[in-house]
Design goal:
six-stranded parallel beta sheet; 45% helix; alpha/beta; single chain; 15% strand; seven-stranded parallel beta sheet; globular; 13 strands
Length: 375
């Protein structure tokens, strides 16, 4: 069976796809389904090592971006998109998969257009509370629609839509705290804060956290994923600001946390500070940890996906939300201190996070992909 994956080149699309692929392989092996040929079509591959390890062929298909705001680049990108549609038609004719699974995003449009033309079964997954334009369009002909947040259901046909949650990679789950303390050289009796800025890091969070470090390390230890492009600058600034601190060894910065390290960091953590991408939220929920979410501002996230995601999760009682415009060292320190305190609020957040998580999302989606591909 040939399965074609379509997605944009972001970690929020890429890593859930990997979770689904692993379940596809697992189910195919256990149920003796014919061998799988899996192809990823995206505007960039994100992580070639993972693609090779998971035996996923990939095709690069650059396309124009569909911006929600006025820009001169919208004109030039119209031509890029037209070229990508033609290339997508050729690529699809050559590959001719049994089923297409799309995470949406402008980069998936040429593939979905071709799939519609060739009448290839399509299943789409919407990560966010508010669907993107491509997924709203694809819902008109998709055989199945999976959603992460209940709020997204109102945008799609009820008879073809299922609430699955967002796929979470299995290697991020499990482990034990004692092993994690050893890996990160943490103090066993000191509480731990895990700070994540998404796969690319978050410069604003990095800057505010760095200023807050002298006060934070007095009562907690910090595991900080800075993002590969921000690591050197964070190291430089933090070394200066913590120079006279007696607890400078409580700060543990990393450019990026691979799966095994991220799992260990979550096992050690008492609180998570993160952006509000769907993947991040469902990983935090799977870990059952209280969290502080800092969504991207509307100027960057024009459709307000992260903001809606964050407040949906907050309404479930699982997190606190700090708008980036209100993010200061003092505010961040205060929120972290409140969530580190033992008591009812912390317990309720843990319970709400566990209730929100859907650990079987990848398996459910994988089974539906196989079902569509065989019929």
């Amino acid at each position: 069976m040939k399965i074609l994956l379509a997605a944009g080149g972001t970690g929020g699309h890429f890593y859930p796809l990997i979770a689904v692929v692993r379940e596809l392989r697992k189910i195919a092996e256990s149920e003796r389904i014919v061998s799988l040929d899996i192809v990823l079509v995206a505007d960039k591959p994100i992580d070639k090592n993972i693609l090779e390890t998971e035996e996923i062929r990939y095709k690069i298909l650059p396309t124009g971006k569909m911006r929600a705001y006025a820009s001169i680049w919208n004109i030039t990108d119209m031509f890029k998109t037209a070229v990508a549609v033609v290339r997508g038609l050729v690529l699809m004719y050559v590959e001719m998969p049994d089923v297409v699974f799309s995470k949406g995003g402008y980069a998936a449009f040429p593939v979905l257009f071709a799939a519609r033309l060739y009448r290839i079964p399509v299943i789409i997954h919407e990560s966010d509370s508010i669907p993107g334009k491509v997924n709203r369009w694809a819902a008109k002909f998709a055989r199945r629609i999976a959603i992460s947040f209940p709020d997204a259901a109102r945008y799609f046909p009820q008879d073809r839509t299922a609430l699955t949650g967002n796929p979470v990679r299995t290697p991020l789950l499990g482990g034990n705290r004692e092993e994690s303390l050893t890996i990160f050289r943490l103090e066993g009796a000191t509480r731990t804060v895990l700070v994540l800025g998404g796969s690319q890091g978050a410069q604003t969070i990095n800057e505010v956290l760095t200023v807050a470090l002298p006060e934070l390390v007095e009562e907690a230890q910090i595991i900080h994923q800075t993002g590969t492009g921000n690591f050197d600058e964070v190291i430089k600034q933090s070394s200066v600001i913590l120079e006279s601190s007696g607890h400078k060894n409580r700060y543990h910065p990393f450019s990026f946390l691979e799966e095994d390290r991220l799992r260990s960091a979550a096992q050690a953590a008492d609180v998570v500070v993160s952006r509000a991408g769907a993947s991040a939220i469902f990983e935090i929920a799977a870990w059952g940890l209280p969290s502080i979410l800092i969504p991207l501002p509307d100027a960057v996230d024009a459709q307000g996906h992260q903001r809606e995601n964050a407040y949906t999760y907050a309404r479930a009682g699982a997190c606190e939300v700090i708008e980036q415009v209100n993010l200061t060292p003092h505010v961040l320190i205060g929120e972290i201190q409140r969530l580190l305190e033992p008591g009812g609020k912390r317990v309720r957040m843990i319970q709400a996070a566990q209730a929100f998580s859907r650990l079987d999302a990848a398996e459910k989606i994988a089974r539906e992909i196989l079902n569509l591909g065989m019929h």
